[in-house]
Design goal:
The complex is a heterodimer. By secondary structure, chain A is mostly helical. Chain A has one domain. Chain A contains 13 helices and 4 strands. Chain A has a two-stranded antiparallel sheet with strand order 1-4. A two-stranded antiparallel ribbon of chain A has the order 2-3. In chain A, strand 2 and strand 3 form a beta hairpin. Chain B is α/β, with parallel strands linked by helices. In chain B, 33% of the residues lie in helices and 24% in strands. In chain B, the strands form 5 sheets. Chain B has a 6-stranded mixed β-sheet with strand order 6-7-8-3-9-10, with helices on both faces. In chain B, strands 16-19-20-13-21-22 form a 6-stranded mixed β-sheet, with helices on both faces. In chain B, strands 2-1-4-5 form a 4-stranded antiparallel β-sheet, with helices on one face. The chains are: A mainly alpha, B alpha/beta. The interface between A and B is medium-sized, with 30 and 36 residues.
């Protein structure tokens, strides 16, 4: 009997850690929601939820692409610049109608993704370096195309930014649809399985005959396209194109959402549900602190605490 | 010197050690043997402070001790050399050797001259000659292991635990290692030696402890224990059974048709292969003989497209295969089981099911969507056919034993219905039972008409498994043994035919 009781201590701790890793982010969201419902005035209102959801949508869309890149043991730092490039292109081509302009913007994101993917897959440049180069280049190109803030006056764009269907904003619907799509791709397609295998063990995937380069390029194209879509939506919501500031530090917010959501930076795993919850958690955290009149610096510190907590829960324990 | 009594260790779901007694005496080499999962690794980890025993006590130098960290064990003079080398590849040999206790000059800076001299002396004392200024990673795996060993014993070790130290060494290096072990024994150090290789055990070890399913089933002098008896103790099977089945599971010869299915001609890779040609007929097992570094793995990798060749042709069934591309080779029906199972074979974080289906995925999906029902059928078939033991198809492959990981890899390739199977050390580091199963399977596959290329450092396995042996040396084919000439004698003579050149890794 003694050895059984001795054994229980560490086992329970392991299980607790595992539960925390799997569901901690959801628990965090629920806890923050309960806290706000109880203590924050005017929190429980349709208007507030709408605002929160609309604010989180672009971050979430970018984080979806980031989750794919991180799943292959990579990272995409260029997403913020892609948003800026996307808003510049949108504003330049708005004369051809909102749809055409949006398509051009997304095509720009795809091109950046292709450049990232080619550098990484064919030239063997490390993802952090390759996407850092495109991060600088993308922001520069965006500013060349559109040197300063420009108002976007287009009824179609305005509708996209503030319209809704059955009370749910278009932005939120689009983000939800994209999240479902990416989750489906990861779970059910050959591409998704290959992506995870490549992230877990690149040499093994190569020897198993997987199209490693093609998968990597497609992953970065997806990330670029998703960031461009986020750029279009953010522009529509703000009704202005601001390539100087749109998307700055977006890469860090996206990485935070992905990591807090339980996707390991070492690759081989992609958690879309967790990523969504991670993005919502950060959003709620910011709101909570703002609504309680705490300075923005507190928000940053709180975010840091959440990240450290997530990384602690996710850290690999020594193998048996 | 170091002993444990009544040690128990329980993991969730398994009792890894139950009531184990083990004593390592000074000046004695003690073999610790057992199948994978018998509890060897767990026992070693208990001895070295990685795990705390749930019951029982450890006595070191006559006093009961309790190591809560590996560092404490090290400070008590217990050094461990693991299968994989735990050193810093970018640092020089000398720095690795003296890491953490570098000689200091004035101002507390490292005295490099003294460090190099001390390192050189330490290595020479063990009969190892390398340039201590070179970065460690430029050395061969064998030499790296020697450095690890030198480091372990330099720290005033009283007990040295070696976990399969020879698994990546070539015969010449094994000789050096054994000289070192004998020197340690002379110095009165207690050596615990873990290995799957019978020849080595009988050559170097004085005493033996056999573990099975977490229990000690035998302990005593090794010389008093017959080989077959030892195998039967490890397996838990009767001697008659083992003898009638032979030490390996190979039946010897296969029926084969005349036309080769695989032809490789003039494969050349700079510094690695020179004009290597070979052909394999359906139903034939061709062995690749030669020492470590002779180009055996490189040949297999070149055929499988994993190693880019500067010239040479590969064809399957008469159709040429583009070299340097694993997908092209796989499409042509060539499958390779790589030597480094953990790094290049399994995808550890994915499940048994995903690992088996990995290479066959495109064939198992429609419009890029995975057909789960078909995957389940295939996985189910192979799990049963190859006796893959796991908690279920959704268990991570990284958690399985070596033998089962190897079977999962075999299943991955067999699901593709290959024409040619290249097996690079298919039974390395897997337990005796799984080894026999894999060997029987290779036989069965050849009987089904598969062309098999077999690479093995286990001479017995190579001789008994192969119909024909192509002997390599320094990246070139030097001989071919066929029919009755496939014997251990002939192989050794073929390898030793010319005086070995000065070969450095």
């Amino acid at each position: 009997m003694t050895d059984l009781t001795l054994a229980r201590g560490p086992v329970d701790r392991d299980r607790l850690l595992r539960l925390l890793r799997e569901y901690g982010v959801y628990a965090g969201v629920v806890a923050l929601l309960l806290f706000n419902v109880a203590l924050t005035p005017h929190f429980v209102s349709a208007e507030n939820f709408r605002t929160q959801a609309v604010q989180v949508a672009p971050v979430l869309i970018v984080a979806l692409g980031m989750a794919l890149a991180i799943g292959t043991e990579g990272v995409d730092l260029s997403v913020g610049s892609v948003m800026a490039l996307s808003t510049s292109l949108l504003s330049l081509y708005l004369g051809y109608g909102p749809w055409a302009a949006a398509l051009v913007a997304v095509a720009g994101g795809i091109l950046v993704g292709l450049a990232n993917g080619t550098l990484i897959a064919f030239l063997g440049v490390q993802p952090i370096v390759a996407t850092l180069a495109l991060m600088v280049a993308g922001r520069g190109l965006a500013l060349v195309l559109l040197p300063q803030l420009k108002d976007v006056r287009d009824p179609g764009m305005a509708a996209l930014g503030s319209g809704d269907l059955l009370g749910i904003p278009y932005l939120v619907l689009i983000a939800a649809a994209l999240a479902l799509l990416v989750a489906f791709v990861v779970r059910r397609t050959t591409f998704g399985r290959q992506l995870l295998a490549i992230g877990d063990s690149r040499p093994a995937a190569r020897l198993a005959g997987l199209p490693v380069r093609r998968v990597l390029i497609v992953v970065y194209i997806c990330s670029g396209a998703l960031a461009a879509i986020a750029g279009v939506l953010a522009t529509a919501r703000l009704t202005a194109s601001d390539p100087t500031s749109l998307g700055t530090l977006m890469e860090l917010s996206a990485i935070t959402a992905v990591v807090v959501g339980g996707t390991p930076l070492s690759g081989g795993r992609v958690r879309i549900g967790g990523t969504i919850a991670g993005a919502v958690l950060i959003q709620l955290l910011t709101t909570t602190l703002v609504k309680h009149d705490l300075p923005p610096s507190w928000t940053q510190i709180a975010q840091a605490v959440v990240i450290v907590g997530a990384v602690y829960a996710a850290r690999e324990r020594g193998k048996r | 010197m170091l002993s444990v009594t009544g040690v128990c260790k329980v993991f969730p779901g398994v009792k890894a050690l139950s009531d184990v007694d083990f004593t390592a005496r000074a000046g004695e080499v003690h073999a610790l043997v057992g199948e994978n999962g018998a509890g060897k690794s767990t026992l070693i980890k208990v001895l070295t402070g990685v795990y705390q025993p749930d019951a029982g006590e450890i006595v070191h130098d006559g006093t009961p001790v309790r190591f809560t960290t590996p560092l404490q064990a090290q400070q008590a003079g217990i050094s461990t050399i693991y299968q994989e080398v735990n050193l810093v590849p970018l640092m020089s040999v000398a720095r690795n050797l003296l890491l953490g206790r570098e000689p200091r000059g004035r101002l507390g800076l490292i005295d490099f001259r003294r460090m190099h001299r001390e390192a050189d002396e330490a290595l020479c004392g063990l009969g190892i000659r390398v340039d201590v200024r070179r970065p460690l990673r430029e050395l061969g795996v064998g030499a790296q292991q020697m450095v690890a060993l030198a480091r372990a014993v330099a720290v005033d070790a009283r007990v040295a635990i070696m976990d399969e130290p020879t698994s990546s060494l070539e015969p010449r290096e094994v000789r050096t290692l054994f000289d070192v072990i004998r020197a340690l024994r002379e110095r009165g150090i207690a050596v615990v030696y873990v290995s799957h290789r019978m020849d080595e055990l009988y050559e170097i070890c004085d005493a033996v402890t056999v573990l099975r399913d977490g229990h000690v089933v035998h302990t005593g002098r090794l010389a008093d224990l017959e080989r077959l008896r030892l195998v039967s103790l490890m397996l838990g099977r009767e001697i008659g059974e083992v003898r009638s089945e032979g030490l390996t599971r190979f039946t010897g010869s296969h029926h084969m048709s005349a036309e080769p299915v695989l032809r490789a001609e003039g494969l050349t890779v700079r510094h690695q292969l020179q004009d290597v040609s070979l052909s394999i007929r359906p139903g034939e097992v061709v062995g690749l003989g030669g020492l470590l570094g002779s180009g055996r793995s490189e040949t297999a990798r070149a055929v499988a497209g994993a190693l880019a060749t500067s010239s040479g042709r590969v064809s399957v069934g008469g159709a040429p295969v583009r070299t340097g591309s694993p997908p092209a080779a796989i499409r042509a029906g060539i499958s390779m089981l790589p030597e480094d199972r953990k790094a290049e074979g399994i995808v550890p974080g994915l499940s048994v099911r995903e690992n088996i289906a990995l290479a066959a995925l495109p064939a198992l999906s429609r419009f890029g969507l995975v057909d789960d029902a078909r995957i389940d059928r295939i996985v189910d078939t192979f799990v049963r056919r190859l006796h893959i033991k796991s908690a279920g198809p959704h268990q991570k492959v990284g958690e399985l034993s070596g033998g089962n990981q190897q079977k999962v890899l075999l299943a991955r390739w067999l699901a593709l219905h290959p024409k040619v199977l290249l097996l690079d050390e298919p039974t390395r580091g897997i337990d005796v039972g799984a080894k026999a199963e894999v060997q029987a399977l290779i036989d069965e596959l050849a009987d089904d008409g598969l062309a098999v290329l077999l690479i093995s450092s286990d001479t017995e396995e190579l001789i008994e498994g192969s119909d024909r042996i192509v002997v390599l040396k320094d990246g070139a084919v030097v001989d071919e043994l066929t029919g009755d000439a496939v014997t251990e004698d002939a192989l050794i003579r073929a390898i030793a035919a010319e005086p070995a050149g000065t070969h450095h890794d």
